[in-house]
Design a protein that fits this description.
The chain is an all-alpha fold. It is built from two helices and no strands. It has a domain of 42 residues.
Length: 63
């Protein structure tokens, strides 16, 4: 990087090429992330309860 002025001009040119998502796209993306987080949390809750149930059975049989 020998010429900082040229570097900043190129950065400015690249910044104008950026396309931001619309409000609708942002809302859809946010809702999808929230939905997937809820689904994942329910999955791991059920998995945890399932494993807990079988672990308790195994522990009661061994004593």
């Amino acid at each position: 990087m020998k010429n900082p002025l040229k570097f900043f001009q190129e950065v400015k040119q690249e910044a104008f090429k950026v396309t931001w998502p619309t409000a609708k796209e942002t809302m859809q993306g946010s809702l999808m992330v929230a939905a997937m987080a809820i689904i994942a949390s329910l999955f791991f809750l059920l998995l945890d309860q399932f494993l807990k149930f079988f672990l308790e059975i195994i522990l009661t049989l061994s004593f």
